[in-house]
Amino acid sequence: MNSHNPNHFRSGQFRQGYRRPEGQIAPRPTAGTLAVRTLASESLFLGDFEIGIDHGGALYRLKITRQGKLILNK
Q1: Section 60-70 average pLDDT
Q2: Residue range 22-50: average pLDDT?
């Protein structure tokens, strides 16, 4: 279940917070320092090979290919 408020992303507050000033380069994360919420693809797809993602009013399609790779299309 999602724990974020989808309206937070649409309001523009999120967009303003994640942009870095021009000229600054983000440090490259290493395997030990990457702290990101991780989900198993099985928990997203639930046996299907394609799901829809509504992001900012646009529909994206996340697909599992025959080779087992992920493709994201707008």
Answers
A1: 96
A2: 80
